[in-house]
Amino acid sequence: MTAQLAHPAPVQPAPTAPPLRLGRLGAAALVVGAALNTGQAVLTRALSSGDSPAARLADADAHPVAVLLMVLGGMLGVVLLLVGLQSVARALRPSAPRAAQAGAVLTFAGALGFFGVHVLMLVTYALAGLDDRAAALTVLDHLDSAPLVLVLVAPFLLGMFGGLLALTVGLFRTAGVPRWVPVCWALFLPLDLLAAGAAPVDPHWLFLAGAVGLVVTARAAAKR
């Protein structure tokens, strides 16, 4: 009777999630959309004299070209952000499927609400051209108190901020993404939501920096 030595089974390496990869279209849409969104925020700080109906009409009268370009650029930025953030959500599925799914659904709803908010901005711009300023103010007062505003603003706030938070969590869980990228977005969210007007520098620059860093990381991974 001979004793046989048992050979240990080879240790299998733990599976690792693939690095984050973004397609060219999604990457370009994310960066350009974030840049347009940041530009709109910076222009709003520079040109806005207040949020009341009278102040919004006065701003459109004082800077008609700049306000129109700001609103139209913002609308294009929303569309591009929708494409870019959906691409980020798809890229996060292998490493953070739940965060990716939540981010995709929420940012889709948020982009629709954000686009609707821009449509209301265009209405304000059109009303500024009326000779009857009292009638224009009456219409804006009615719009500001109408349920339609809540229907647009609530999905925008909950969707965009909640969706971006979910994607940020997914980025923290994804290998190969530098920590400063999701940190930029994590800092942007509370600053923009709670202290955008009080901050000395517009927090959208953090959002843009995170978007650029994310695209650079993803494109470098695609070349390996």
Secondary structure class reads mainly alpha
N-end to C-end Cα span: 55 Å
Extended strand count: 0
Task: Output mean pLDDT.
Answer: 88
Poorly predicted ranges (pLDDT <50, ≥5 residues)? Answer: none
Q: How many helical elements?
A: 8
Q: What value does the Rg take, in angstroms?
A: 23 Å
Q: Provide the succession of SSEs.
A: HHHHHHHH
Shape: elongated
Question: Helices, strands, pairings?
Answer:
Elements: H1 24-47, H2 53-62, H3 64-92, H4 97-127, H5 133-145, H6 147-172, H7 180-194, H8 204-222
Can you tag this structure with a few keywords?
224 residues; mainly alpha; 8 helices; elongated; membrane; transmembrane helix; transmembrane; Integral membrane protein
Summarize the structure.
The protein has 224 residues and is mainly alpha-helical. The chain has 8 helices and no strands. The chain has one domain.
